[in-house]
TrEMBL record:
It holds the Pfam family 2-Hacid_dh_C. Residues 7-308 form the D-isomer specific 2-hydroxyacid dehydrogenase catalytic domain. The keyword NAD applies. One of its GO terms (molecular function) is oxidoreductase activity, acting on the CH-OH group of donors, NAD or NADP as acceptor. The keyword NAD applies. InterPro entries: D-isomer_2_OHA_DH_cat_dom, D-isomer_DH_NAD-bd, NAD(P)-bd_dom_sf. This is Hydroxyacid dehydrogenase. Residues 108-282 form the D-isomer specific 2-hydroxyacid dehydrogenase NAD-binding domain.
Length: 320
């Protein structure tokens, strides 16, 4: 058994690595993107980012010393949470880093639809000056249901209220949350969704949220609803979504995540006039490494004290 290793699968800036070295002098710091020296994999105790192949070997190893993984995303549905729980490995995510970026993305996609900007871009590509296919509506006074009232949902609510949008929320229990006029529980979503003009999905992927947006829920929505998905693709039944868009029951969908990524080239979604597709970019965030490093260092200092975490620890049983 050698010196414990902090394995940086997500590459950081040199000054950030030096900060880690000063905080954890008893550890060997391995930069996965630069290091060429051999290491004993089982000596990895902390991993920043998730090397899937290496991670699977560590989860299968009886002698692995892995105790904590800091994810670089908010969603952790790609992790084997049961194995983590069985081996008592801590997991924390990057929740909060992407809240401004995703909120701006949601409002940007809605403005392109509500103000006729998407249609204008299409007309420009054809050198056409016309208003015949331009439809417009104000976002102000629209009722928006934000499904997921965590960091991102709360930030979106604040930004949306600045545009005069009425914001309502959905969370596990229906507990009141800052920034929302009223919140409802997951089990009651179908009862109130028909009062909303816009539905935004920001939920993580769990057993409870898999395929929750299906024919039944789409039909429960008010005719003419706009739907935005910046949560997880498998939360939506794609065929049911396409049907709801084809019939006009949904007026518009802005989709950043999909059941299958990349979105297959033969998907009907590519050619639908009432769909805006973006290639999973809503979470792209300036100064991401700086923000991630701040979360990691807070947790690292606490972990070195008593092997606990202080920020963004995932409940391995709930999945978020």
């Amino acid at each position: 058994m050698g010196q414990p290793i902090i394995y940086l699968y997500e590459q950081l800036k040199e000054e950030q690595v030096e900060t880690i070295k000063r905080a954890a002098p008893a550890y060997t710091i391995i930069d996965a993107q630069k290091e060429t020296t051999q290491m004993i994999e089982d000596d990895i105790q902390i991993m920043l980012g998730w090397d899937k192949e290496l991670g699977q070997r560590l989860l299968a190893s009886e002698s692995s010393r892995l105790q904590w993984v800091q994810a670089i995303s908010a969603g952790v549905d790609s992790y084997d949470l049961k194995r983590f729980a069985d081996k008592k490995i801590l997991l924390s995510n990057a929740s909060g880093i992407h809240s401004v970026s995703i909120s701006e993305h949601v409002l940007g996609t809605l403005l392109t639809e509500f103000r006729g900007i998407r249609a204008s871009i299409n007309n420009q590509s054809k050198n056409e000056w016309t208003r015949e296919n331009i439809t417009y509506q104000q976002l102000s006074e629209q009722k928006m249901l934000i499904v997921g009232t965590g960091h991102i949902g709360q930030q979106l609510a604040v930004f949306s209220q600045g545009l005069g949008i009425q914001t309502y929320g959905v969370n596990t229990s229906g507990h009141a949350t800052n920034g929302f006029i009223e919140c409802y529980s997951h089990k009651n979503i179908s009862r109130i969704v028909n009062e909303m003009d816009i539905v935004v999905n920001i939920l993580p992927l769990t057993d409870d949220t898999y395929q929750m947006y299906n024919e039944r829920l789409f039909l429960a929505m008010k005719p003419g609803t706009a739907f935005v998905n910046v949560g997880r693709g498998p939360s939506v039944n794609t065929n049911d979504l396409i049907d709801a868009l084809n019939t006009g029951h949904l007026r518009f969908a802005a989709l950043d995540v999909f059941e299958e990524e990349p979105l297959p080239s033969d998907s009907p979604l590519w050619h639908m006039d009432n769909v805006l597709i973006t290639p999973h970019i809503s979470g792209l965030t300036p100064k991401f490494k700086t923000k991630l490093s701040l979360i990691f260092m807070q947790n690292l200092k606490q972990f070195l004290k008593d092997h606990t975490l202080v920020k963004n620890e995932i409940s391995l049983h709930q999945g978020y």
